[in-house]
Amino acid sequence: MATSAERGRQVRSRLLQAAAELVAEQGWNAVSTRMVAERAGVAPGLVHYHFASLPALLTEASVQVMEAVVEGAEQGLSQARTAARALELMLADLDRYPGDDPASRLVSEAMLAAGRDEGLRTAMAGLLARFRARLGDRLAAQGVPDPHRTAAVLAAALDGMMLHRTLDPELTSTAVAPVLGRLLQDGTPGTAQEGHP
Amino acid sequence: MATSAERGRQVRSRLLQAAAELVAEQGWNAVSTRMVAERAGVAPGLVHYHFASLPALLTEASVQVMEAVVEGAEQGLSQARTAARALELMLADLDRYPGDDPASRLVSEAMLAAGRDEGLRTAMAGLLARFRARLGDRLAAQGVPDPHRTAAVLAAALDGMMLHRTLDPELTSTAVAPVLGRLLQDGTPGTAQEGHP
DNA sequence: GTTCGCCTTGGGCGACTGCCCAAATCCAGG
DNA sequence: CCTGGATTTGGGCAGTCGCCCAAGGCGAAC
């Protein structure tokens, strides 16, 4: 049979998963220690044995999930041979995370909670920076102008569209693909980019 | 002197303002009736005299603020004579709502709460649809291709950038302006679009 | 068999929650 | 003056909260 230390680690990971689910379902501030314990199938007191506090548990659980999400996106990205293909793959993620699914909700909840929790904020900032750097590098290799700023805008646009999709289900990947495609091509003359005097 | 009905209306509106502030500061689920009453300077029981429930108060308060935000954005938009100028004005809003200010936070909190509150969701969907329609019409008048889809992407991108800005303060309007400018020009390079044809 | 240390239990603490309500207060109309 | 209706008060209700802790269970080392 498993040693008690091994069982302990398993309980800890079950608590993390339960916490991630509940953050997505109920919202960051609506998750209680007893809820998490019940879903994980353990006694309430165990939460504060394995974690210093409830926010610490929620933070660790959320960061873990978001690392997996970013990992998945980066993996798809690394297979793209052209910028257009990379965009296509990112838009596929838009369908995979429609905005009202657990992963999308968790990311949004964490984004708001990050405004009130410094540790969470720095962790998320690191994740975002890493993803944007990778995307920017890929865009640069494909000759997209201003690649890293474009990457920043693309990442923000994707997040925003996931949010807006809750309010407008018609905001699908096929609907926005041609528009975003314009971001990837050279910006030639014509646009009246009105400068400041 | 004021009649009791007039004082009542004033108390009601103070409760609404206090609720909006607290949603932004503490988060949707962290606002309590007693908090709101204290900030509004009234007795706790008054909350349930003027409002059916706490969610009803939060919803009405948030919708009221968001209506004002959209109103302001539309007003600026109506003064723009070119698509580039319209974009410029929208980016100015990006600086006005840096992501960690009360208005931005309230919008984000409401967006998440809308996923769990049907009334709030339909109210917000209406606001978003109205804004996108106005923006799309303006882009169409300036010859921007696929104007209404472009408007949808622009609106989402703006929201997303406000969110990301809390994680990366360098995501300023000047940094993203040239990238977003590419959204406004024709797919095939060379089509200038200055003023009316 | 005994001891040791990690893991687990379940209840208890004071504080807080949304909502309710009898009683007090207020002012306009009679 | 008094009455009537709207507004306001502050406490009470049953429930939940985060966190804590004495006590017990359990496998490994000796």
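The longest helix of chain B spans residues 54-78.
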